[in-house]
Specification:
With 333 residues, the protein is of the alpha+beta class. The chain folds into 2 domains: 107 residues; 221 residues, C8orf32 fold (Roll). It is 54% helix and 18% strand. It has 9 helices and 9 strands. The strands form 3 sheets. The protein has a 5-stranded antiparallel β-sheet. Strands 1-2 form a two-stranded antiparallel sheet. Helix 5 crosses helix 8, helix 6 packs antiparallel against helix 8 and helix 7 packs across helix 8. The longest helix has 106 residues. It is rod-shaped and about 180 Å long. The N and C termini lie far apart (148 Å).
Length: 333
């Protein structure tokens, strides 16, 4: 009995020793396995975090994608609408272009005719002539819608800066008028200048909001001081005379305020004789070493003919103003 118990005890001891020896031999592997498991757990945790982050980004991108699809659909609809509008506008433009061509063809035969009656004081006779202006030439200027409305003061500043833009003395219509007046005056520059002055004095004084070109003033038969001065300067320059625009302030009496004004100065080979015949001196300005005799281009005497020479302001050299303050003298190139 004792021997059996001893055998059992020995077997248990040997088993424990075997287990201990086995554990001792496997311990490094177990530690390595534990380390691997820990590493895998960390990797799993990292991958889980990365997955969660990617999932969040995916969801955000999905929402952006949906918004982009919605924006694309909206833009596509807008594009289709714009294309439809463009095609409609193109059809309207082509139709308008066709009508414009027809309008131009029809208006080529339209002429504006201005009748003038002038006095040739050398021959002491009245001379009439017609200024003929093609409507197309007039429309070229009048349909210029880029002009802004301006006060007279602003127009005078514009004229001072851009005089060559408005004094269109090389315009065929202006050249034709100058040639007609030259036929009457011959080589008498004073008579020629006074005929030009009579012509603009036949036009109605009318305050305007826009700077006007000579053809516009001629066709419309009206203008204020800057418009009339531009027309007179253009015709005189086309007739071979040197001209300046005088930007000034004037008043008719000491009790009136000064007001902005424009008139012209014209260079003559000798002092004008006509003012002296009526007991008046000839007024002038000096510019760049040359004398320019002033000419008032507005006419306030509707009941009187422009050749009523007793009226101060009817002749080149007359100064109808009580006071003139010159602000600028602008040469016509």
């Amino acid at each position: 009995m004792r021997s059996k118990l001893g055998i059992v005890a020995l077997s248990i001891v040997l088993l424990i020793v075997g287990l201990f020896l086995g554990y001792s031999l496997r311990a490094p592997e177990l530690e390595e396995a534990k380390s691997t498991i820990e590493g895998l757990k960390e990797e799993l945790s990292r991958l889980s975090g990365a997955y969660a982050s990617l999932k969040s980004e995916y969801e955000a991108l999905s929402k952006k994608y949906e918004r982009l699809i919605a924006d694309y659909s909206r833009l596509r609809e807008e594009y289709n609408q714009l294309r439809s509008d463009y095609e409609e506008l193109l059809r309207e433009y082509e139709e308008m272009e066709k009508y414009t061509e027809q309008f131009i063809e029809q208006i080529r035969e339209v002429l504006y005719v201005r009748h003038f009656l002038l006095h040739d004081y050398i021959m002491d006779e009245l001379v009439s002539f017609d200024g003929v202006i093609p409507a197309l030439d007039y429309m070229y200027y009048r349909l210029n819608v880029t002009r802004e409305p301006m006060t007279l003061e602003l127009r005078l500043e514009l004229l001072e800066r851009e005089v060559s833009e408005y004094v269109t003395y090389d315009e065929p219509v202006i050249v034709d008028v100058a040639d007609l007046l030259r036929e009457i005056a011959g080589y008498d520059d004073e008579l020629f200048a006074n005929l030009v002055l009579q012509l603009v004095h036949e036009l109605t004084y009318n305050e305007t909001l826009y700077p006007k070109y000579p053809i516009e003033t001629l066709v419309e038969g009206s203008g204020d001081c800057d418009n009339l001065s531009i027309l007179a300067a253009s015709i005189m320059r086309a007739g071979g005379l040197k001209v300046v625009i005088i930007i000034c302030e004037v008043r008719r009496s000491p009790h009136e305020p000064l007001m902005g004004h424009a008139m012209i100065g014209v260079a003559l080979s000798h002092p004008p004789e006509m003012p002296y015949r009526y007991g008046r001196e000839a007024w002038y300005v000096e510019y760049d070493g040359e004398v320019y005799y002033i000419a008032e281009c507005t006419w306030s005497y509707e009941e009187e003919a422009p050749w009523t020479y007793e009226i101060i302001g009817s002749l080149v050299g007359d100064n109808p103003w009580y006071e003139v303050k010159i602000k600028a003298v602008v040469a016509i190139p």
